[in-house]
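Troubleshooting: if your tokenizer reports a length mismatch, compare your output against this known-good record of 261 residues.
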Amino acid sequence: MSDLPEEVSTPITQLSRAQRRVLGVLIEKGFTTPEVYPLTLKATTTACNQKSNRDPVVNYDEDKVEQVLDELRQLGLAAVVHTESGRSARYRHYMRHKFTLSEAQLAILTELLLRGQQQLGELRTRASRMVPIDSLEQLRSELNGLIEMKLVQADGPLERRGIEVDHTFYAPNEQRPVRTSAPPGDDADEPQPEPRASQPVAAPAPAAADQQFGARFAALEATCEELRSENEQLRESVETLKEDFRRLSDAFDDLRRALGG
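Known-good structure output:
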């Protein structure tokens, strides 16, 4: 049985840092560990403080997390679930009740809540932990929808290399525009086709040669970014497995104590 979230007529346009972290954790664990979701207060606190998939790393105590959970309940973004045994309350998010989002959009927004501003390649890799995002084209399509809803901001056209995106839930005293990371006027995403060796080709003019070099460099840079993102994903997966093992170990200890072992 769960408490229904309170109705909030005012649109939700900003959240505190702690509210973003706790809400992001509830959504993430709903995707990645549905077998233990909704979360207990202890599990929510542990997930908030984990070192992987978080920026910045925090050290909240259970009193702090419980206070934030109550704030999210008042906003209609979370609810408490009472188990049949009544031994421990569990918490779940209600983002789907407050916003009309696709599953991919919810995963993308979750990653931005947990880690802040990111480039498209790393954002796609991280969000795909929760919902498959098959290509950058799909990511851009989902992001365009989020931008139209004013939930996400970008520092330029999404087709431009090096673009970065972020959520828009910052409080006024911390609101900042996303910083520009792509070189001005650099829109080259794909390498130009190389001429066939069997055809005589005149030496390219200096400007054309520079353009070809820039395109090849952009492609190489994109490949390096993909490899870096994949390596980071593997590292984060290992950290997540460690966190999951520790949580299961704690649950086993709790069960053993409950059984008098």
